[in-house]
Specification:
This protein is of the alpha/beta class. The protein has a single domain, classed as Metal-dependent hydrolases (TIM Barrel), CATH 3.20.20. The protein has eight helices and eleven strands. It has helices at about 20-30, 50-70, 90-95, 130-150, 160-170, 180-190, 215-225, 245-255, and strands at about 5-10, 30-40, 75-80, 100-105, 110, 120, 155, 195-200, 230, 260-265, 265-270. The strands form three sheets. It has a seven-stranded parallel sheet. It is globular, with a radius of gyration of 17 Å. The structure holds zinc ion (2 copies). One zinc ion binds near residues 9, 80 and 234. One zinc ion binds near residues 7 and 9.
Length: about 270
């Protein structure tokens, strides 16, 4: 089967130093047929750490590299838009820079009008009470729906990613079961609006130890008739290219999915699992 990694970062992202050439070589070595460089566009900090110059430079580099490989591996031009709903001008500007192959929408920063707001990655969840964690997760899922309604994205990235920190880094053992209505609403929304669900594999061999989202949510997505899946390693280094893809494909097949998708020119193209 062919593998496509639709979520990676290279040195054009503020939190990666991986040259795109190294990412391409690593993906090729892992038998990947194509990957997308989806550099960060964190709209809240757009001028400080993510900016249009880097996004455009990434796309031009990917375009050039794609030509150089002559089809041995495809390199798609992408963008990961975080918090577009909180800074729509920055989002619109970033989207106008290039004719992207894939636009993925994500939530890294949680805006909570009734409590703590902040980036998941920068937050010390050890000092949160159970009640505060519940409130944070509630706000996180509310932000997710707001993101989907306000970001013209092809793919919804890493649903449940907040747990990478809350459970993975801080061992708080929170369960999203109580929020199943909100998760169901999100799944129904993406199905109704033709937005793909990303199976993000970045947590599989970390302290978190699972996919974002996990099997329970993937099964729920299938129950609702969802089929539009992508795979994303969210690799920021060459070593993490396509990490956990074989396990992810095995799980998807076990659940009963038969295909997943990659994107080119913002069109979903199916691959057999
Ligand atoms: Zn992300
Ligand atoms: Zn990412």
């Amino acid at each position: 089967m062919k593998l496509y990694d639709m979520h990676t970062h290279t040195a054009f992202s503020h939190d990666s130093v991986c040259p795109m050439e190294e990412m391409a070589e690593a993906q090729l070595a892992k038998g990947v047929s194509g990957f997308a460089a989806t550099e960060h566009c964190d709209c809240l900090t757009f001028s400080r750490c993510d900016n249009g110059n880097a996004l455009l430079a990434s796309c031009l580099a990917a375009e050039q590299l794609d030509k150089e490989y002559g089809g041995a591996i495809r390199i798609f031009r992408g963008i990961e838009i975080g918090e577009g709903f909180l800074a729509p001008e920055n989002m619109r500007h970033a989207l106008s820079l290039y004719d992207y192959d894939i636009v993925i929408g994500s939530v890294h920063y949680v805006h909570n009008p009734n409590g703590y707001s902040g980036y998941c990655a920068d937050t010390d969840f050890s000092v949160f009470s159970h009640e505060e964690l519940m409130q944070f997760l509630d706000a996180y899922l509310n932000n997710f729906m707001l993101m989907l309604k306000n970001t013209p994205c092809d793919v919804m990235a890493h649903l449940t990613y907040a747990l990478r920190y809350i459970n993975g880094k801080y061992g708080r053992n929170m369960d999203l079961c109580v929020f199943s209505d909100k998760i169901d609403d999100i799944l129904r929304y993406i199905i109704d609006h033709g937005i793909a669900l990303e199976v993000n594999t970045s947590g599989i061999d970390t302290a978190y130890g699972d996919f974002f989202p996990d099997e329970r949510i993937l099964r729920r997505y299938q129950d609702f008739g969802g089929t539009l899946l992508t795979l994303g390693s969210d690799a920021h280094t060459a070593e993490r290219a396509a990490v956990g893809f074989r396990r992810a494909c095995a799980l998807l097949k076990q659940i009963g999915f038969t295909q997943y998708y990659y994107f080119e020119k913002r069109r979903a193209i199916s691959c057999d699992l």
